[in-house]
Amino acid sequence: MDLGIRGKRALVCASSKGLGRGCAEALAEAGVDLVLNARSAGPLEATAQQIADRYGVSVTPVAADITSAEGQAAVLKAAGTLDILVTNAGGPPPGMWHDWGREDFLKAIESNMLTPILLMTELLPGMIERGWGRVVNITSQSVKAPIPQLGLSNSARAGLTGYVAGTARQVAPHGVVINNLLPGAHATDRIETLDRSIAQAEGIDIEAVRKRKYASIPARRYGTAEEFGKACAFLCSQWSGYIVGQNILLDGGGINATL
Fold first, then answer.
1. Predicted confidence band of residue 51 (pLDDT cuts 50, 70, 90)
2. Cα(11)–Cα(30) distance, rounded to whole angstroms?
3. What are the φ/ψ torsions at residue 237 (nearest 5 degrees)?
4. Residue ranges per structural domain of the chain
C-alpha cells in the first residue's frame, strides 16, 4: 500500500530505539525524510546511519533533551520545515501514590504533557499554512485504563489527551490531523524495566512475570516495535485524513472495553 507521503519530512522523538525507532523505520520505508532525536548521541547516530543506509532517505540526527527549552530549540532549528511530527518520551518511574511530591509531578508533566504541546504549538502554524500535516503522539494504554503503579504517567498523559481532543478539531479544517497512539505492553527496554521492577518487588523470576502478563493479553504476547511503527506510519499517511483526535489502542486486546 502506497501511503502517499514519499518526500515528506518528519520529526520523530525518542527514536534511537524502541517504539520511536519502529515509527522512524516505518516512515523511512514509506519514503519520508527524517529528523531523529534522542538524548544519547552515539546510539542515535548509529540508528540514523542504519536507517539511511537501508531505506535511502535523508536522516538527520539531533542529540538533545527534547523536554528542555534548549533541546526543543536545537531540534526545531535543525529540522526546518516539517510535515509530520511524532512525539514520544519515556514514562516516569513507577511507584506508589505516597512516593511522589510536587517536583515529581512537575517533571512528569514537563516530559509527557508540555513537551508534545509545545512542539505542536511551534509546528502546527506551518502545517496549517501549507494545508497538510500529521501529528501522532505516543501516549499509553493508561489513558484508557490507569495503571496503579504509574500514577505520574497516568496524570500527565491524560492531560495531553485532553489537549489533543480540542486542538485536533480546531486544526482539522486546515488539512492537519492529530491522533494519539496508545501502546500496551511492547517488547522494549521500558517494559523490560517494569517487568524487572515487578519481579524484584515480588521476589520472583522475570520469566514468571512475563508468563503472567502474556496470560492477561488476548494476543498472548507483547507487541513489537515494527508493528507499532506500521500503525504510526498509516496515521501519518494521506489516507488518515478522516481519523481526527482519536486515541487508538495497540494493546493486543488487553483492555476489555466496548469503546
1. very high
2. 14
3. -85, 175
4. 9-184+224-249, 187-222
Which of 3.40.50.720, 3.40.50.1820, 3.30.460.80, 1.10.150.120 is the CATH number of 9-184+224-249?
A: 3.40.50.720
DSSP string over 28-47: HHTT-EEEEEES-HHHHHHH
Selection from 215, 136, 222, 127 nearest residue 181 by Cα = 136
3-class DSSP state of 35: strand
Q: 3-state DSSP call for residue 183?
A: strand
| Average confidence (pLDDT) over 104-121 | 96
Q: What are phi and psi of 104, to 5 degrees?
A: -65, -45
Pairing of strands 247-250, 176-183: parallel
pLDDT digits 0-9 by tens, 223-255? 999 999 999 999 999 999 999 999 999 999 999
> CA 70 → CA 35, 74, 237, distances in Å?
17, 6, 30
- Each residue of 53-78: pLDDT tens digit? 999 999 999 999 999 999 999 999 99
Contact (Cβ atoms closer than 8 angstroms) between residue 60 and residue 36: yes
Q: How big is the CA angle at 161 (ends 83 and 100), to the nearest 5 degrees?
A: 120
The answer to whether the CB of 17 falls within 8 A of the CB of 45 is no
Rounded CA separation 153/107 (Å)? 10
Task: Check if the beta carbon of residue 13 is closer than 8 Å to that of residue 39.
Answer: no
